[in-house]
Amino acid sequence: MELATTTRTGSGRFTYPAGTTSTLLVNTSGSVMGTDDASVTIGGDSISGWATSGRFCGANNSYRVYFTAKFDRPFASVGTWKNGAVTPNKAEETGGANAKVEVLDTSRSASIEPEDTTVSGPGSGGYVTFANLAGATVNVQVGLSFVSVEGAQANLKAENSGRSFEEVAAAAREAWNARLGQIVVEGGSDADRTTFYTALYHSLIQPNVFSDVDGRYPGFDGRIHQADQGHAMYTNFSGWDIYRSEAQLLATIAPKEMSDVVRSMVAFAEQGGSWDRWTVANDYTGVMNGDPYHIIVSTAYAFGARDFDAQKALLLMVKGATQPTQGYVERPGGEDYQRLGYVPGAGADTLEYASADFSIAQFAKRIGDGETYQAFMKRAQNWQNLYNPGSGHLQPRGADGAFATQYDPADPAGWVEGNGAQYDWMVPHNLRGLITAFGGDQATQSRLDTFFTKLNAGTSEPYAFMGNEPNANAPWVYTYAGAPAKTQAVVRRVMMELYNPRPEGLVGNDDLGQMSSWYVWAALGMYPQVPGRAEMVLHSPLFPKAVLTTGSGKKITVNGHGSGQYVAGLEVDGVKSARAWLSESLISQGATLDFALSPTPTTWGSAPADAPPSFGDGEKPAVSFADPAQVVTPAGSTATATVGLQDLTGAAREWTWTATGVDGITVTPGSGKVSVGAAGKATAQITVTVPPGTTEGRRRIPVTFSSPGVATTPAVLTVLVAQRGSWLIAVNNDGISADGRSTSADFDDFGWSYSTEALAAAGAAPGAAVTFDGFSYTWPAFPAGEPDNAIAAGQTVTVSGTGRLAVLGAASSGNASGTLTITYTDGTTSTASLGFSDWTLSGGRGQLAFGNKIALSTPYRNGSGGQQQQVRAMVFASAPIALAEGKTVASVTLPSAVSGGVLHVFAIAASGQSGR
Length: 916
Description:
Elements: E1 2-5, E2 9-15, E3 22-26, E4 35-42, E5 46-54, E6 62-71, E7 77-82, E8 85-88, E9 92-94, E10 124-130, E11 137-145, H1 149-160, H2 165-180, E12 183-186, H3 190-203, E13 208-209, E14 216-218, E15 224-226, E16 234-235, E17 237-238, H4 239-242, H5 246-253, H6 255-272, E18 278-279, H7 292-302, H8 310-322, H9 334-340, H10 347-366, H11 370-380, E19 387-388, E20 393-394, H12 420-423, H13 431-437, H14 441-451, H15 477-480, H16 484-498, H17 514-524, E21 526-527, E22 536-538, E23 545-549, E24 555-561, E25 566-572, E26 575-576, E27 581-582, H18 585-589, E28 591-598, E29 622-627, E30 630-632, E31 637-647, E32 653-659, E33 666-668, E34 671-676, E35 681-690, E36 697-706, E37 713-721, H19 727-730, E38 736-737, E39 754-755, H20 756-761, E40 769-772, E41 775-778, E42 790-791, E43 796-801, E44 804-824, E45 829-836, H21 841-844, E46 853-858, E47 861-862, E48 868-869, E49 873-877, E50 881-882, E51 889-893, E52 898-910
Parallel strand pairs: 24-28, 30-37, 38-39
Antiparallel strand pairs: 1-2, 2-11, 3-10, 4-5, 4-9, 5-6, 6-11, 7-8, 7-10, 12-23, 13-16, 14-15, 17-18, 19-20, 21-22, 22-27, 23-24, 25-26, 25-28, 29-31, 31-35, 32-34, 32-36, 33-35, 36-37, 40-41, 42-52, 43-51, 44-45, 44-49, 44-50, 44-51, 44-52, 46-49, 47-48
Helix pairs in contact: 3-17, 5-6, 5-7, 6-7, 7-10, 8-10, 10-11
């Protein structure tokens, strides 16, 4: 089989072995995510049809694609198949199929003579045979369209009519070589050159042309629209991925096509009423998080792809960032983000929105809208609202302003495809502000040294995860912190250890070319660090020479003189430069860069004046905090904490603070003054007194810092009034969200959560008694955004009862089990195994384990992107555990070590007693 393509068509050449039946199967319902319906029609030498599919990454999107195929010889016989039944001589068939179609053995009627035909089912399709070819070939030309079969036929006629296979293949090869030839590298090893051009090729595969040759395409409103004359519409935008470096590469070498990509995004936003995050065909998927298309539009403009209506784009961008959308939710948690300056519980969303807001600000400034620039630059600094000086990290926080008591930067909770340590660096537009918050250059370098101990640690360790996008920019933070030589070393390590031309040499998921585009920039010795801008941060190039020709014909020539991975010096167009970055004119005007390379580290680019620019307009002067963020205090007792402030601007000030008691709880002292040095911290100690009789629960003590001439900065100290062994102390995971506020919970560390409404419909309303299998449990009734279940970590909770014990819970990331310890009133203990099945039974493919029974079942779960996924989410009851005869249980200690996934507990009950 040989294949070649044009923009909207393909050519195939099939050579069949001599002496065998020459059969071609057309599996119209074979989409991997299932096919809602499909149709095939077979003529004398042609096949046409369509398929309706969707559900990308579990979303509810849908699309229909049409095809027509013209063969160069007539069919000897035809037939169709549907759900296992083969019908010879039938020329039309329809029918869909479930996801992940399996190949089944199909029974045939004895009256029908079997043919040598492979049948896929359930589903539908057709087959054709050719006369015995004795090794000869069959040629086919295939046209595709998202409009109609007639559109596919017109595309085929315009692009592939009367052309031989060799002509199509040669034209495709010529087109690819011309595009790949826009970056010419010389020298280096064969392996490095192969890796480079493979990466460049991957970077150029998507997005894809979506409109027909006549300009027609289906819009986000379901109607057929017409592309502007001379322009094509595009689709398949993995926005969350490609805004980081691929959009920049495409805008640099293909500004015409990138302008059309932006035109397409703008048109889709106008037709559908909001901007998507990950578009497939002409429907929203909402996959991933943030608001990445704003970044792509702004970045494309900065890099020279400007052939689109910028004023309309800005108007729609501002609308999407400030107004609630109907149907598809563009910014989940957006109302909270605008009101609070962050999305409660969702650190990743907050940082993504801040980057998008920065990009809107830059775009507005470029087209002369100063008012929008000022408003969105202030929002761009919302990353400061996540900085907790108490922990020293960017950290998700609650709707009340409080940070979690314990914070583990290796925990993915509140983050997307990464953890807190990896998202610490995702402030690309104001890294100087971030470095100041982290204690300055040396402290930041030390933190990065530890972070890069591992390069691809995954999401459960506090180290780099360079196989994914969230900390793709992290190596260049060194350069902002005065250590560009360390950037050079880390970038080269990543290139050499994680990329190569072998099958394992594409680290992680390429995400439509994003990871490959990272490599392209890295090999060229420059990186587009700041979204919405076109400055380039520099490091050492991989090849002795590389010449990039931009889409506007400008040349960027990069020469590496000498050997080694460190930069000893740089000349830009013959003029020496100590700066570790280049202005936007590099992309717009081109330049020749001559790097002097060294095998050992140098101090080139390390002076503060040579660091790349950061953009701090709108930032707050300081952030306040409470340490610990929560104190646990039984009624009738006291606890101590510190409140404090950290300067973020490098200016010393005196601040006045006040702390106000609530619900009878008092704070001593209630006010005071602290002097904060430049980029320093200052704290004051307070005592919290909880009066006897105070009911259990969380109280929030507001703390406010003020100083003349600057904005006040608030903090929150959480006081958890609870006795030892209280379930309130044990819970540590937000796993249940309201349907309209899905960002408030994250059960599985991937943004998915149970639905409050769906659980209530299943019999588990907040605070309700859930009776199952002879046990009565009390379902959690904690406010949204507060922990509602306990991830087993050795917590001890008070439980009373005799006879038997049972637990309600579920596992995430696979089945999970551990050892439960039961303590009796006489001081003796016993142990029992506790295990739970995965909460979705691995998407419906798994089986119940550990003797679990399904206690609660919901038809969907909520996603952090505001979407609902139609996958069954369950809560299980454990197999009953026999208690020691004649003894009364006093407490239960959850497993401190767990095998498998993550073990969650919602409630515990003993015989004859209401459970927690």
